[in-house]
Amino acid sequence: MTLGRGSSYGDLIDLLATELRSFPQAKWIVEKVSGLDSASIGPLSKELVADDVIDKAMKLVGRVKAGEPIQYVLESWDFRYLRLSINRSVLIPRPETEVVAGYVIDEIRQRFESREDATFKDYGIDKQLFRVADLGTGSGAIALSVAKEIESRFDIEVIGTDLSQEALEVAKTNLEALDLSVQNGVKFIQGSWFDPLDDYLLAFDIVVSNPPYISPGQYEELDSCVKDFEPKMALVAADEGLSDLIHIASNAMRYLKNNGMLVLECDPDQIDPLVKFLKQANYYEVESHLDLALRPRFVSGRIKANSLVAENLDLREI
Ligand SMILES: C[S@@+](CC[C@H](N)C(=O)[O-])C[C@H]1O[C@@H](n2cnc3c(N)ncnc32)[C@H](O)[C@@H]1O
Fold this sequence. Notes:
By secondary structure, the protein is α/β, with parallel strands linked by helices. The protein contains 13 helices and nine strands.
């Protein structure tokens, strides 16, 4: 099939679907280049489509066929209830991380929503702000989902950090797309893991992170659509991929409140060493959790304030 004068939106979508072997991708591309949303495209399927829309769509199809992930081509991707802007400075948000964010959100709700109309302050036990840190926030996927899904009547502050200034620019763009009431509860700070959080010793109720956890060896085996497009610094960590996970787990206890919770996404193969490390480092209620494909995918644990810092634990002994 070729397109020319008199082609309709329906013709364009059919052609792109054939080229890409994917009807959803064809629709997403037409939505992007036409500025129409998915609900409007269907009724317009017999309407004539402008030449410049066809040209733009064909260029994007060329990029997908050359191997670029559809998410970067569309410059946006859905994560839980958010449509996030993304570019090649940030990892494409993954479905498994949606489960991690959901766990954090459920944890906050369970603690504070057992009573209708409850506010944190009603409990009288903790008059401080409820604070969540999302380390290596990237597009802001976890931080912004927490801020958006936890109702604004709760006094909550979410702080996202990232070493990459470019990633934080993306996170800030995504923050600006949200309601002001949500925006007010979120801060993004540049720096390595806890380095920019000197003012937040013993200040967080939850520290969550989806850090880089792929070993340099595994990285070489990844598909080129990952290696050639996604930022390496978002993916690779030393020591069999464990170095950033261990660094965060070792330092979180200085920043978590008494009984605060650490939540870390990792590779299924890293669950055992990570659980062992958390237990040795005095975390309690250490648990592993499954992702949507029922693979063990993240760990959580709590810490008592003033627990011994795990600096002296040797990773090689795990
Ligand atoms: C796997 S990505 C996760 C991004 C996002 N949280 C998500 O789940 O989609 C890891 C993130 O950690 C950031 N990162 C890498 N090294 C870091 C460091 N030393 N300190 C802080 N962030 C770092 C990367 O820039 C990247 O955004």
